[in-house]
Amino acid sequence: MKIKAFLLVILLFTASIFSQQIQSPSEFLGYEIGARFTRHHKVVDYFKYVSSKLPNVQLEKYGETNEHRPLYVSYISSQSNINNIENIRKNNLSQTGIINGNKSNNVAIVWLSYNVHGNEASSTEASMLTLYALVTHKKAWLENTIVIIDPCINPDGRDRYVNWYNQVKSTPFNVDQNAKEHLEPWPGGRPNHYLFDLNRDWAWATQVESVQRIKLYNKWMPHVHVDFHEQYINNPYYFAPAAEPFHEIITDWQRNFQTAIGKNHAKYFDKEGWLYFTKESFDLLYPSYGDTYPTYMGAIGMTYEQAGHGMAGLGINTDEGEVLTLKDRATHHMTTGLSTVEIASKNAIKLNKEFKKYFNNNDLIYKSYVLKNSNEDKMNRLKALLDTHEILYENAKGGSIKGYNYSTQENDKMEVSDGDLIIHTNQPKGKMVKVLFEPKAKIVDSLTYDITAWSLPYAHGLDAVASKSKVSSAVKNQSYTFNNVADKTAYAYISKWNSIDDATFLADLLKNDIVPRFTEKSFGANGKTFEKGTLIILRNDNRKKGFDEKLIKIANRNMRQLTNVTSGFSESGVDFGSYSVKPINKQKIAVISGKATSSLSFGEVWHFFETQLQYPITNINSDNFSKADLSKYDVIVMPSGYYNSVLNKSTIDNLKKWVRSGGTLLAIGSALNSFANKDDFALKTKKNEENTTDDNLTPFAGRERKSVANLITGSIFKSVLDNSHPLAFGYGKAYFSLKLSGTSYNYLKTGYNVGYFDKNTKNVSGYAGSKAVKNVPESLFLGEEPMGKGSIVYMVDNPLFRSFWENGKLFVANAVFLLNSSTLK
């Protein structure tokens, strides 16, 4: 025992010597923090350096970005905690019920996440300062705390910003707001490689950074999580407590501890005379933020906002005449980061106790969510999302259940079968299940920061019932086999069309020079009925050697079951030689990018084609669009944006000429403004006839709240579909649309109103302003305006929004591959 004690003393002494000798970030980098922006690889180098010098700091690579930059977290604690880190982690998980054991844990786990928005770059500088402070003069807090630091969630975006800034900045830096170094060009450093906002992707996990981070997050389930941000240059520092609305699932403890943390921050800011604010602007409702997602997983989730953003650079004059420097910004973030660790350390036992209590889900009203397996592909996509979050699900046992029906918005019965999915709330992540599946989120304040509806049954297009009683279920291991065999006697091979996975299969066929067709009318073959949109691959269209083997290989890797038929004579409906069975050409697609477009919307389109359809597109910069030879393309996609600088009379005339020759122009979201109410286009804005002459009489303090009457902030409405039209092939006669703005359009007087809101339409879920909601009935959701041999497709509500509204994606594939696809230009 004496030898062990002696060794422990030596170990502690050695660690103390190491911590005294460790270089500060400035010493290691060769410049003071705040003197320049540090490129990501140098940040990683510093974290590697510290972990190599100190045994109480561990570094773990948890992933890689699209541009192959590494993603790391650092674990910082006392030496004894590091030696016991795996047991601490498991004990913590046992408190949640995720693993068996029900062990006690008295160590607080604090996770600090920096730089999710790449051009909010001061926080990564602060991460190095925070690490250094913790391992030198703040070591006492580590005795009962494990601090996890992710120094840069979004290195691709950060380096995009830092590299640009270093190229254009003045020496010394220029504080004039008009200087080039303060005017970041499109698309900016905020988003990741695919121009997604990673701070809105936690729940949907559409991006590689999110998937890899959530996997690690699930291993730890921290008690406190902080997301460090920057806001615009004239705002004081923001920290907890958050603003209303809070989601109803948030506990009194979580609310109160936010306040305790905020008061601890205020103590340090008051001492320095730094300005700050709380309880404003940043609410806790939308589940996919870096503060709400951890909150719904039992943590104290918070956002900290420092003035700066991509405008501030190394220093800038604010409107109040003060110079805001990078050094100041990093120091403020370091201060709140350390204050968070301090208050967590002081309350480690209470944090663990309340964290454990959070996972008691007995009081949840809905006990089970039941989803009909009417579409295997859609169900598998939902299961994949649940697997990402390690949310448990089972299969129904069959029978009849009663509950809230998502389709009818009424209490109703639903027959269930063995293949239907059941998600219970009496599981560790039951509160997150409630948040993601609830039919309607309870909203106590209409002033929110983001969308207010997101329910997964609507997003994935699955019929569902929420039951207040636990529904019987069983765990079943399902394996999927595809018995595709080459048949050289086959007249044709048939494949269904009702999911985005079918569209990915089609894209793969086209890339491999296999010519498919689709049917505009249903038919019967081999005792089965095949609906409109069904793919038919004819031997007559594909006479190259090895066709059968090549097709089978593509079908198997896309997990598509083919039906082989030996005749083109259908048992019912159209035959395969019908003019209603049309070839699908290898579409050449252009997407407009650049400053006329919303970078987020362009990123959604880019990501959709490149990672989901895996089909090539050409990005055309909006500055060059007027000079582009449009005849090279079959489809042009206009993401949301403002195209006044692009679409002058000459360019519009060229665009109309191209459409008339057989092109398909797909306009999404705000891109529709480029055509609305203009001559030669059928699209007309629906105007609110309500008298607004009293607006100027509204008191100043009430203006903001009154303005939301004209807004729709991400709300769900039920629409009617004409599924006999190619744009709606693969759908039923109803569709739940996520409306993202208060702008509505009249039915097209010439053309096809493929998706529309009828006179009985009402808000299903989410906030919709009292004025805006009146314009939704009898308005357009999805339409086609034919023009010569081609057409313009109007998508009022963006079906690719954040890539999480899975049920809308097939509309885009239909527009690209089925509409006008047989037309040769």
Features:
single chain; 825 residues; alpha+beta; Aminopeptidase; 4 domains; ten-stranded mixed beta sheet; seven-stranded antiparallel beta sheet; 22 helices; 30% helix; 21% strand; disordered N terminus
Oligomeric form = single chain
Helices and strands: which structural class? alpha+beta
Number of strands: 39
| CATH C-level category of the largest domain | Alpha Beta
Helix proportion of residues, in percent? 25-40%
Any idea what the CATH architecture of the largest domain is? 3-Layer(aba) Sandwich
Number of helices, counting only DSSP H or I runs of 4 residues or more? 22
Annotated CATH homologous superfamily of the largest domain: Zn peptidases
End-to-end CA span = 87 Å
Largest sheet: 10 strands, mixed
Strand content bin: 15-25%
Domains (count):
4
In short:
Helix content is 30%, strand content 21%. It is of the alpha+beta class and 825 residues long. It folds into four domains: 2-357, Aminopeptidase (3-Layer(aba) Sandwich), CATH 3.40.630; 368-474, no CATH class; 492-583, no CATH class; 589-687 and 708-818, 3-Layer(aba) Sandwich (Rossmann fold), CATH 3.40.50.880.
